[in-house]
Design brief:
The structure holds two protein chains of two kinds.
Chain A (H helix, E strand, L loop, with lengths): L1 H25 L3 E8 L6 H10 L1 E8 L2 H9 L7 E2 L3 H9 L34 E13 L22 E4 L2 H11 L9 H14 L3 E5 L3 H7 L4 E5 H10 L3 E4 L7 E6 L8 H11 L2 H11 L6 H6 L2 H5 L23 H12 L2
Parallel strand pairs in A: 1-2, 1-3, 5-6, 5-7
Antiparallel strand pairs in A: 4-7, 4-8, 4-9
Helix pairs in contact in A: 5-6, 6-13, 7-8
Chain B lengths: L1 H5 L1 H22 L1 E4 L2 E4 L2 H6 L2 H33 L6 H9 L6 H12 L4 H8 L11 H24 L4 H9 L4 H30 L2 H7 L6 H12 L2 H28 L7
Antiparallel strand pairs in B: 1-2
Classes of the chains: A alpha/beta, B mainly alpha.
Chain lengths: 348, 274
Amino acid sequence: MVKKCRFLLAAVLLAGFVLTLSSCGQDKRVVLNVYNWGDYIDESVIDLFEKKHNIKVNYDTFSTNEDMYVKIKSGGADYDVLFPSDYTIERMIKEDMLYKLDFDNIPNYKYIDDRFRNLDYDPNNEYSVPYMWGTVGILYNKTMVKEPVTSWRILWDKKYSKQILMLDSQRDSIGVALKMLGYDMNTRNLAELEAAKEALIEQKPLVLAYVGDDVKDKMIAGEAALAVVWSGDAIYMKRENPDLEYALPQEGSNLWCDAMVIPKTSKNKAAAELFINFMCEPEIAYKNADYIGYSSPHTEVKKMLDPELVADKAAYPDEEDLVNYDIFKDLGDYLKVYDRIWTEVKSH
Amino acid sequence: MKKYWASYPYLLWMVIFIFLPLLLVLFYSVTVRTEEGVRFTLEHFQRFMEPIYLKVLYRSVKLAVICTVICLVFGYPMAMVLAGNHFKRKQVMVFLFVMPMWMNFLLRTYAWMTLLERTGLINAFLSWLGLPSLNLLYTEEAVVLGMVYNFLPFMVLPIYSVLSKIDKSLIEAAQDLGADDVTVFRKVTFPLSLPGVFSGITMVFMPAVTTFVISRLLGGGQFTLIGNLIEQQFLVVGDWNFGSAISMVMMLVILISIGVMSKYEKENEGSGLF
């Protein structure tokens, strides 16, 4: 009897061991760690990639460039593909944190619109492949704002006291004030920044709140009349609440671009390039652009998307409307001056 | 001897996760990275002495004090009710009081947003009564409300546990000697409950003075508190040195307040949290 039990036990143990082994065998696939913004991909695309190339993808998300940067910089994670924005890419290139891409492995780069190649943050386009782009503008509720919205000045109009939402982000909000005053969003001129500070302090009593992602809930619910938003979010909010409309201020604004890069923490550069190339396949890029609603720099995608969306100036503005639109540059240590000004505004 | 050995893992834990990180924060706060290397400096502390940062510190302490006072005023009677004999199902009340704390703190703060906003429940009720709607969210009052709501249990529970342990015969003795209810409270109950009051004050003041989520969500980013300032230095500006210096100042403020509290506590022969 005892012997029988022992045999049974051994059999069970052995079976368990074999099972563990075989499940280990299954996961001998190459693992690719991808780090992207939250809700910034059609997740079915990941399955397609895993099946096609027999590579396992670990997908993680972040909510600000700065969070992502700190995590990579501190060496706490070994991601293979990142999706940072323009000025963060510039900073990471400066600090030698990115690999140069081998564009022979990314033939689908040919689909990227010329407008989005060789941008200032990566002048020779060696490190990054554009993923999505957009603008910063004014979202307004047509039931509360009857006049045409053409200028940032409307955010300083006393009529809309406590009906204005600003972004709780130093660069974006100071940038709005700089643009309203006719300056460059990347200025290092202290007098211009002080003028922007005065403008923001003057505006503060009219502001309902400085918000982050919650701007979406607030505007959809009709909590405020005017808000500074990213164009991609604007398209989402317009879908949810048809009373909302997006306007591009004539003084100019911020044009941003999120791109795919490979950090030096990557141990699978070839697989990462395979992933980037896969994301640029017309069918896949279309799926993402359709799901996220942001503007795609992909030439084929524009042809495949819903014509209504492509005609929407919020999503795909004409090139001539974007004359004074600056891409953020990395300010390096000068960011401290922006920080001081923002703190002075917010603690006023 | 056995006891001595048992303390080693905890000692190791404290060195790795408390002592070393503190040293790092201290190191960052008094150094600056230049091209020649790391150099000792007090410039971060000097920078903190600028009016804008002192203003932030003043506002943080002010709001935390207001919150602590309100918590005490509402919390003490609450603790007395819980500790008293008026309710048969006292345990149920204590349970109900603590239960919201099981829910995520962020979630509870978000819930306040939906209550207070312009299209929120309170304003919907007001307009149903025919009253004009109020601007409740994104005010300093909303921040204090959020703090009081979140930290009230930290005031009530220590006072409750001290009150419920008071020897009832002391109160009976006072009554036998002819003291009325007010005198009993003033001369017997309240002095005996002071240790609970002191730990309650510390446990409310500390999180209130360092919070950054409540001021962001309910204040709409308009009321920068010291916690927001520290977060901004680490996550947005990447100025770890200045962020560390603010953290050190913050620790100093808390240490001083605990020091003051424990001095009072000793005078009252209590043994509270510290």
